[in-house]
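REQUEST ID: PR-0412
SUBMITTED BY: lab tech R.K.
PRIORITY: routine
TASK: structure prediction, single protein chain
INPUT:
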Amino acid sequence: MAIISRGFRGKRDVDPRIPPGQYLERGFPVLSAGPTPRADLSTWTFSITAGGAPRASWTWSELTHLPHDDIVKDIHCVTKWSKLDSAWRGISLDTLLDGVEVAPEEQYAMAHCDGGYTTNVPLADLRGGKAWIAYQYDGAPLPPEHGGPARLLIPHLYFWKSAKWVRSLDLMTEDTWGFWERLGYHAYGDPWKEQRYWGD
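STATUS: complete
OUTPUT:
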């Protein structure tokens, strides 16, 4: 009779799409730093600014009538869960930025959101088919608890960078930390490098 140590289960198959230190989550946990804002779509706008000065702005109707993408991406939360094949609809940041004058020295952006949340992102990570303003999830309007009516979707970075309830992007010449970055989260947040906190 073979002797098998307690707890031995053989080699576990690990999905290569799950970054180090993450586990597979089949649900969609709700994590927020404060209360869930509720937006009035009749007055809702999304803007691109620079130094707070407007460069472009869209109403909800204008935004959602732009050409959209249907996106299926894996997402990774800094709290160590990963969700595979999440399905979204949104407007590419390429589409929005193509109509905006961007100075060569403007290499960063700060997302500003309802509720006061902010997060910083290099402009290069918003271009090249890497980021969207998402307004649907799994074939339905994006629920408020998941950032609806619209959130940033930057799936190649930890999910706190995919800011909920996004209302504007402010173009910047220098990288300035946002809400969680000031509280100890990594300035960039690459899940494959486990860039969770300062010093990672």
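NOTES: Helices lie at 60-64, 93-98, 179-182.
REVIEWED BY: pending
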